[in-house]
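User: Just a sanity check before I run the rest of the batch. Below are the structure tokens for the first item. I only need the designed sequence back.
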């Protein structure tokens, strides 16, 4: 029997294997996860809503099903957290905002949550997010600051920062995040976990994401295989989402077990214009050499696609304006100042500017798509920097004001809607994680998962665990 102190370290696949063999009980696992949460969350502030009684009751139900040999699905009994922008029946989804009234009926699950419930997953609670998921770090007027488990002085990134911090520390092997400009991949990179932004529409969304067709729902986990397992469950269509894709019938977990030898990989360290810190560049360069060692055909390329920052900025700011438009002048006083500022700029954007931004987005998507006709994958750093001080939108002495200026590798692939995976690939000298981003053409999610799993199997970082209580450096 595995010691209770180690149960929180098991992957989702490990848990299901032990349940099937009657070697573990979901009740014992739930108790271990809650003990771990109690131990670390006073430092991290990763969770904003817990229902321990419901969590334990669901674990007892799962145990009964496993004893009968009748699990509901592949995630029965697996502890999972959900970012507080996705609806969960009977729990308030306040999106980190004092402007959202918790005293209203919460009667429906979001599609991904519904698929998890149908599979028997156990909901630990809801994880913290910046207000309405508007920025790449995690703090809000409602829930305060969330911290990085590798160094409490640092940000975990965002906007799925609470989810990433929780998974990194073993508070559930799986989490649901959302990604409108990097919000799954940014915290995955900063916290040393796996984060997948699937092809747009692969995971159905309802209510619609606040940032329109930039918004994706995606898996977060400590291993690529667990992320693939989660995508197998949540990657289904839903009638409430007119953009959701038909079920492609792909066994994503099965694809992670197939050889990645021979995949054609384009490597761009800078997407033609991005300054990457030498430390991050060195770690990522070594990871790319590792892809070659795995039998992939890697070619360093000059990425000559014109950048599309202005198009992203226009779409993001306009969406922010729409998100808070219904709020009265009185309620706007309670909103995050940065959110109100970009929303005010968004209100000045003309309809013709939005149309032009969409045209620029189309041109950018076409050019990147053409590149991935010649290659199977495009590989980049996930971020050009490691985690910086908590409580800031940008690093100290950064020459720009807004978060999207230090995340130039992530939001381009929200514009294109392509699948993009961040997999941990090493650490800086100060012990902060670095992520490798793997991108494929639309609906080729299996390719990024296959490549990421092959890399992680050969070069694992799972043996490293954050202390979740250290303010080093």
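Assistant: Here's the designed sequence for the first item:
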């Amino acid at each position: 029997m595995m010691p209770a102190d180690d149960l929180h370290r098991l992957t989702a696949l490990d848990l299901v294997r032990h349940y099937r063999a009657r070697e573990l009980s979901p009740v014992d696992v739930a108790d271990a996860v809650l003990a771990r949460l109690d131990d670390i969350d006073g430092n991290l502030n990763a969770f904003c809503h817990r229902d321990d009684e419901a969590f334990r009751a669901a674990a007892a139900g799962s145990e009964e099903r496993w004893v009968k040999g009748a699990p509901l699905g592949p995630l029965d009994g697996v502890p999972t957290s959900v970012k507080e922008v996705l609806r969960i029946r009977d729990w308030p989804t306040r999106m980190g905002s004092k402007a959202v009234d918790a005293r209203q009926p919460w009667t429906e699950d979001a599609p991904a949550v519904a698929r998890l419930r149908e599979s028997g997953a156990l909901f630990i609670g809801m994880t913290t997010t910046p207000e309405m998921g508007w920025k790449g770090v995690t703090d809000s007027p409602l829930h305060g600051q969330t911290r990085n488990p590798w160094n409490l002085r640092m940000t975990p990134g965002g906007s799925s920062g609470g989810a990433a911090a929780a998974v990194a520390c073993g508070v559930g092997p799986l989490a649901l995040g959302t990604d409108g400009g990097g919000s799954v991949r940014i915290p995955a990179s900063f916290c040393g976990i796996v984060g997948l932004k699937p092809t747009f529409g692969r995971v159905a969304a309802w209510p619609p994401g606040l940032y329109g067709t930039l918004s994706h729902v995606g898996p977060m986990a400590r291993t690529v295989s667990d992320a693939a397992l989660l995508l197998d469950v949540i990657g289904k269509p839903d009638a409430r989402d007119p953009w959701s894709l038909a079920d492609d019938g792909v066994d994503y977990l099965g694809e992670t077990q197939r050889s990645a030898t021979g995949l054609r990989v384009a490597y761009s360290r800078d997407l033609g214009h991005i300054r990457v810190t030498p430390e991050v560049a060195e770690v990522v360069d070594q990871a790319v050499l590792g892809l070659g060692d795995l039998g992939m055909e890697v070619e360093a390329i000059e990425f000559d696609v014109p950048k599309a920052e202005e198009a992203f900025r226009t779409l993001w700011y306009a969406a922010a304006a729409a998100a808070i438009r219904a709020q009265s002048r009185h309620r706007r006083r309670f909103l995050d100042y940065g959110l109100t500022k970009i929303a005010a700029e968004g209100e000045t954007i003309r309809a013709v500017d939005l149309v032009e931004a969409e045209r620029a987005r189309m041109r950018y998507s076409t050019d990147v798509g053409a590149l991935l006709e010649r290659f199977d994958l495009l590989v980049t750093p996930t971020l050009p920097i490691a985690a910086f001080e908590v409580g800031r939108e940008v690093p100290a002495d950064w020459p720009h004001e807004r978060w999207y200026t230090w995340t130039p590798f992530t939001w381009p692939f929200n514009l294109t809607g392509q699948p993009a995976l961040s997999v941990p690939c090493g650490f800086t000298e100060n012990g902060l994680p670095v992520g490798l981003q793997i991108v494929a053409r639309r609906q080729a999610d299996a390719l990024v998962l296959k490549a990421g799993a092959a890399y992680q199997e050969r070069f694992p970082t799972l043996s490293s665990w954050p202390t979740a209580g250290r303010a080093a450096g």
